[in-house]
Amino acid sequence: MSICAFVVIASYFKNIVSSLPPGPKGHFLLGNLLQIPAVEPWILFKEWSKIYGDIIFIRLPIRPTIILCSAKAAFDLLDKRSNIYSDRPRSVMDELSSLTFNFAMMRYTSRWRSHRRMFHQYFHKGMTKSYESLQRREVHRFLKRVLDTPEGLNTGHEVRKIFSAIIVNTIYGINTTGDEYAHLAEVSLRGFSEFHVPGAYWVEYFPILRHVPSWIPGVKFKKAAEYYRPYVEQMINQPFDLVKGALVSSTCYSGLLSSNSEDMHKEKGTATPSITESLLKKLEAKYGGTPEYLEHEEIARNATAIGYGAGADTSTCAVQVFLIAMAFNPEVQKRAQAEIHSVVGPGRLPSSEDRENLPYVQAAILETLRWKPVVPLDTPHALIEDDEYNGFFIPKDTVVLAVNRAMMHDSEMYPDPSAFNPSRFLKDGKLDPNILSPLSLAFGFGRRICPGRHFSEASIYLTISSILQVFDVTLDPDFQGEDVQMTTGLISVPTSVPCVLKPRSQTAERLIQGLSV
Predict the structure, then answer these.
(1) Do 494 and 156 contact (CB within 8 A), yes or no?
(2) What architecture does CATH give domain 20-513?
(3) CA-CA distance, 170 to 83, in Å (whole number)?
(4) pLDDT tens digits, one per residue of 321-332
(5) How far, in Å, are 172, 189, 263, 517 from residue 279 at the CA level?
(6) Taking the domains of the chain in order of start, what are their residue ranges?
């Protein structure tokens, strides 16, 4: 009987293994872990897809993983079946570095829903217009800084200051030049980005290693977590506690915080008070003096922190990539500038109302997101229950990685994918609805799609269109090379932004000088 039982069980598991998606052979203990490169693993995943197809199975210790290299497979599973593909895998590195506050990586539970619900009420599409005056102000400040600093400007850093200031002012009402808060968010998100590259930290596959003392040689994961943890905790708590303390004391609020609320109420219908101020007042009114207050305050603290951290980073990188694209493709830049001139004229900056009338500018933004994707690997999903797709068995708890870069460089969908060509998104002078928009890939899938995407899109458009109106972007003459490389991480950042911004004309200079800030 025991032999028969063994044969039945062995046959069962053999059938399961044979029905899994195809993939490369691996080590009998470590699976494919040793095959994943430390740099740009998405390149290898793309190569594997040429051999095994657009859905690949790899074995990683305690983490069976499928890799999706086509938009169709990603939409079929992560969008259409999001009810079972919306979980997240556990991250030991997040636990060690205080990154568990990040609801983007929380398990698919009521806790995640509470965080997302609180965040979404301030960042859904209908709220986008309400933040435009604040976004414009920070873009104006950037344009003035560039004009006033004709030599030695760190263009990439100045771009980061735009979005850090926008998001910190929006979320916390703190009027800042962006330096201190930009640094906190940049370092914290760098850790998050590094931790979630497949194969980067073996503690994710052997969680027992977390108990190894940090002084033992080679235990780099402990040192990394210890380095990033204080930055993460400061990012979560420092601005939130500033607002909370000011509201409690009601004495120094106007001095510490921006005149955001006052200015915004003057411009009726164009803005709202800071999000943290609004949340704290709502929580006090609803839960003040009850045991539930602290629980909801923690959700508010976490939700605002992720907006502050991630909200600035991805937008910053997208604009940095755009500037690089313009420097290397002056003919694209000239065409976009000509379109703005014909629609807007030389006397003002483009606004959100002009966006639909600037199809080439919109196409250039889409091509930026496609050409050097800021998120080359989508944040990992996890399967809640067993599933079947195209005849393949996908077991419960499988990690699912969508390779955005492979999709955005799919030569069938985007011919000559290495070329920067905004015209691929146009037909008869309009955006072609038959060409898949990179916006459908860049912000995630299904129920885990980025809830701040509308805010990010609006900020990116206002920044890029304003730069094109008043500046020419050229390559730094000291730059040596044919291209700018991107870092390896969940968020991929240009290694440099070798771009020089010069006013297009005296009219452009006068326009910048006359901007209100």
Answers:
(1) yes
(2) Orthogonal Bundle (1.10)
(3) 32
(4) 999 999 999 999
(5) 10, 24, 19, 27
(6) 20-513
